[in-house]
Amino acid sequence: MSDEGLDQGGGSVRAVLRAVDILKSFAGAPGPLSVADIRRSVPLSRPTLYRLLDTLVAAEMLHVEGQPQRFRLGRMVALLGRSWADQLAIDAVARPIMDDLRDRSGETCSLFELREGRQFCVLESKSRQALSMSRGIGELTDGFHGASGIAILAWLDPAHAIELSRRTNPQDREPITAAELAATRRDGFAISHGAIYKGAASIAAPVFDRNGQVFGSLALFGPEARIRDEGMDEQIRMLRDAAARLSAELGAPDA
Question: What are the phi and psi torsion angles at 80 (to 5°)?
């Protein structure tokens, strides 16, 4: 395999693919690999291989030790592996509950997780209606604004919750207040109208893990024309029941 043109005209993509090939070379390896071992699986020139190995070490995807150098998988690979396993587990547990809530409410149901001080949408069960709302899978950048974020912060230590809100808050948004969090905790759920998207509304309830700590929140999203005072009590009841069922599946005490 020639590695000519690695840094020109699509070379960045080739570099990523070759870095992935390097990581794949560790599959089934009984222990750390030398550069010669890796070259047998990924036949690159030594300068190119060392450049990619240095990059993977810097990204903590690989760990290097000894002289001559030997490489093993790094801590970030383990973290990604755990995240992959967790994602499979949460999908298997949450998907039936979310699909059921989506079908009964008619609205998009989304599951959010608090992860390292940030809010992530980890699963969605999208509404079957022609006009529907969605947050999208991945990290959210709205500083916990909206019902889904407030329903998470309200079950954290108040000082920590306010600090998270301020640290992640977009510059054009007012931070979430202690009064908002206290009201949400008192009611057991959060409601927002147009907090993220104009014309959209959401209702969210907390989800707890086996330690009784807040895992994240379960939320319904839809247009304000459908999520309004008439019928909202029933939507709230269905949502809170679903959040309690999911908390119980995650092993939360007294869920």
Answer: -65, -35
User: Tokens 């022609």, residue?
Assistant: 130
Contact 73, 59 (CB under 8 A): no
| Helix intervals (H) in 59-130 | 75-105
- Cα gap 145→152, rounded to integer Å: 10
In this structure, how many other beta carbons lie within 10 angstroms of the beta carbon of residue 114? 23
What are the distances in angstroms from CA 190 to CA 77, 92, 152, 172, 181? 36, 26, 9, 22, 9
In sequence order, the β-bridge partners of residue 118 are: 115
Q: What's the token pair of residue 110?
A: 């989304």
| 27-86 pLDDT per residue, tens | 888 899 999 999 999 999 999 999 999 999 999 999 999 998 999 999 998 888 777 766
CB 236 within 8 A of CB 188: no
φ/ψ (deg, to 5) at 140: -95, 150
CB proximity list for 105: less than 8 A, separation 6 or greater: 220, 235, 238, 239
Give the containing element (helix H, strand E) for 222. Answer: strand 214-223
User: If you search the block for the tokens 């020639």, which residue do you land on?
Assistant: 2
**Cα dist from 108 to 136, 214, 221, whole Å:** 11, 22, 5
β-sheet bridge partners, residue 234 = none
